[in-house]
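Objective 1b: paired records.
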Amino acid sequence: MRIRYLWMVCCMFLILTGCAGTPADYSNEYNPDTDYQYFLHEQGPGIRIGASKDGYYFLNNKYIYYMDKTTMKPVLLDNRPDSDCLKKEDTNPIENCNAYVAQYAGPKDFLSYYNGKLYIIASDTVTERDKQVDRAQLLELSKDGTERRKILTFEFIPQAIAIHRGVVYYTSMDFDQNSDGKYQIMQFRLGQRSAKPEVIYEGTQEKGHITDMIPYGKNVYILEWGINMYRTLRYDIQDQTVTPMYDEDDENSNEGIAGIMDQKLLFDKFYGDPLDERSWHFYESNLEGEDVRTLPIKRDFMSSVYADQKHFFARTAWYYLTPELAEGRMNPNQIDVYDLDYKLVDSIDVSFLPMDHTIITGDENNMFVHYGEDGKKIIAVLDKSQIGSGKAAFRTLIETKDEGPTLRTNP
């Protein structure tokens, strides 16, 4: 009887300790193993680059590339000579390529490096109610791409998605013309067998949608859009609350987070008119959106702004400039670099970029840019150690044609 009692006690102990798991992290300290790589986030597209200790992973035009940080030479994630990776997709289906990401259902580009694994969104054909339908799925990949595991099937393709501290955050919105336009933010806990998606926010803006989610520390920062407006919301992971940030009384102001540095949020304000001088300033706050102050960086037009731990980057808003407005203003074809004392230390030429592109602030070593040109998707890189020398310049890393991958690396 005593043996049976001891056995039951041991079982109960194992169950209780097993259920407890790892304590939740509600700190605001960045953990590279478990936290979203916010410094690789692109406003709009989300994240398409992942960084490990030794290298970078890139998703470009449906193919994954790896680049060692020492050699800085990108290669396809799958370099087997018998793979399908170098076939032309329009004439040969890609069936044997660990670097390929199927996107025939129109999934959002997404690649994230998290806790030693890669995560992507890919298309697959699944059976639902005795019908074959195309769905977007979240897949977990080993670092060499040889192992793939389905994590989650999405009912609707997420416009925004991020993985942070064991949780997948993603948006859900029905774009069918007969739907009511409802949009939500969901969370799904990784590593829990019985986990199901949970709603953490339901949007109410007319014709509203969410384009960006940037987790940092115990917060998820959300960019929500409506008719002629946008605003930033903060989801407190610990309290499980969603609240608007910044001055809700200033009805004409639209705020968006532009960067995170030294436990501070960098953001800008837009008042609907790029000629409104209030939109030419940059601001910072604490992680809760309080203690707002204006930064002493002077610009002569509305600008896009980025930041890492050593620099501020600003570029005149080229997308608003007409030839008449551009005359006499700061050059929109360069990124101006300021140090932490807000002094201009360099300017980087970006005249080669087309109108449509996204700049990725990057880590302490490299900045990146994504753009398309002549039927190709291109990724370029800038070595930040050259900032201040007058020689800092972007060079092409990867060119992926629509019909299949090619590589071009400038010396």
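Objective 1b, second protein:
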Amino acid sequence: MLKSDIVRRISLRDASRALLATCLAVLLAYPADARAAPNQSKAPVRSESFGSNSLLGSYLAGHVARSARDSENAALYYRRALQKDPANSDILDDAFQLELASGEFASAKTLALRLIKRPGEAAIAYDFLGLDAFKRKDYAKADEYFRLAAKGTSPEEPTMKLARAWVAVAQGQSDRAIATLSEPSKAAWATHFETVQRAFVADVAKKKAAATEAYKAVYEKKPTNMRIAEGYARHLAVWGDKQQALAVLKESGAEDTPLGSALMADLKAGKTPKLMVSTVDEGLAETFLGIGQVLASNNGVDAAQIYLRLALYLNPASDIAKLELAEIYGNLEQYHKAVSVLDAIREASPFRLNAQVRKALYLNALQKTDEATALLTALSEKHPKEESVLQTLASIDSAAKRYDAAIPYYTRVIELVGEPEKRHWTLFYQRGIAYERTKQWAKAEADFKRALDLDPEQGAVLNYLGYSWLDQNINIPEAFDLIKKAVRLKPNDGYIIDSLGWGYYIQKDYVQAVKHLDKAVELRPEDPTLNDHLGDVYWRLGRKLEAKFQWTQALSLNPEPDDVVKIKKKLEAGLPDEAGAHAELQTQPEAVPAVAPEPQPQATANP
């Protein structure tokens, strides 16, 4: 597989985590919630000192930072460790990779030149030095480095085959490059990737027939791949077939992506676009970009960062590489890094709007909600018909419980949609939640029903509407039917199972209620409302000690301020008798999250 072949090139060692954990507990004040480290083992670190600035201290701090995927801080600590033990090959290798992952290319080059003088594998160092030579147009040296890199690489891994093909093109030997990329690959998965690269090579070499054949082959296999469709359309337009280019964009759906939409507009205006790859630098960068995308999609995050950085080293203008890198940082919750990368996307880029919307989401995650809202508001004024901007504004307001502010944005998106399709159920659902939270039940109910008209199999909507009916003591049989259907659709959703249990509780069927409420807490033990509900049913069943335990547990889980008051009253006095107005002491469940999924960058798929 691609992931295992390439990740082996990044690291071949297996870490001794127990020793590290013991040392770190004593020595370091670095965040303890680091993710699991990549598999690595280190040569013994020669140091008698355990100070924070010692070799061991720097090494361990770097290891923890790397485990947390914090490449910048990890690079800093490994740099310090390397200064104290410059002969340590393992530290040198790690320091090089981290400088590369952080985009510190000058430092990475210095370390790479040191690394290749040491015995052992140095495939990534040769990769980088090959790219550096290629960038300087020293193609003979680049080919030498790529040849040496291939020695430390699985025969099934195509990176060096592709890289050397681009060297051949740069040296005026495009026929040899095309022939090389036409040979059957040793790995079935690589054949498609190499065919895409063959199309790029032929385009750059102005070999129309060869490019057309390659593009046609990959497009017929993957007609909905946006990058392939866009590349094929550009090829067709440059060679004079603009009508066929328009047809490809339309039938593939690429016309709805940022790049495809911009290309469609240019073609309709009679403009001749650029090829997707028009220089050898762009072509070789595309090789590393494509592999980086595949690695990122297969959880090869560490290797993906390096390959994306290599792509940007050769082609700093690659907005797709920047989007991919920002998405990796976002998934790692390193939002400040993601924002920095997104800010580097050009104002004139078709991806600029998409990048700014994503930036707003990351700013919101950094608790900079006012800044995020200001950015989105400015974007909405500049792009009043852009659904993603308005929906993101609505989502941020909903998450902050500013439901009155969210409703107009959802309404504007719904108006822009016109005749809704199945996929638009979420708009009505989210607006319905906002209406329900602002005590506009008639409008909320209408939106929930409209969402179910569009997609009757959405468990979240079934649950919310069913629970709301139960809570109001109306449409009881229908409410149970909706919630039971939701449970069938999502049998492991703790919130939905809680709704079913709470429905039985409201109907005073405590035996049935406890079965479901127990399971709900088992599935979502961190939720205060679910624990509170379980306490209530325990009390009604006479299990008062267990009830107080659950209420105490609910209090420890940071419930809403109003719920804190109610739970404390129950801990003091228990629940009133059945005839009492016990509803006043009960909390209402958060049936489902109120925030829509983040808008995703479009047209970044790997060819």
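The radius of gyration is 29 Å. The mean pLDDT is 85.
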